[in-house]
Amino acid sequence: MQKVRIALLGVSWWTDIVWEGFSISEHVEVHAVASRNSENAENFARKHNIPRWFSSYEDTIMHPDIDAVYIGVPNHLHHHLAMLALRSGKHVFQEKPMALNSSEAAL
After folding, report:
1. DSSP count for the chain of H helices, then E strands
2. What pLDDT digit, counting tens, does each position of 60-85 carry?
């Protein structure tokens, strides 16, 4: 069985906890991490032996080696990144909220 290759979007103390949960799964490989700050992404990747890191959430989502994303960025970015991932055929794990208002939620 092929593992689902997931990318973690966002780097924080919470992402450490999320990484731990995904890392114990026999069905998931944490394949990449992204942060708006390249150094933060690289440090997180090296700390957790994640093979790739990015400084662009959008580039991470669009990468062909990524099957799914975990969205753990500030709330105002959730909707945009989730919709981009879904439209790109990626699976999405999302921190709440999915949207900031009823207009975004209706999409």
Report:
1. 5, 5
2. 999 999 999 999 999 999 999 999 99
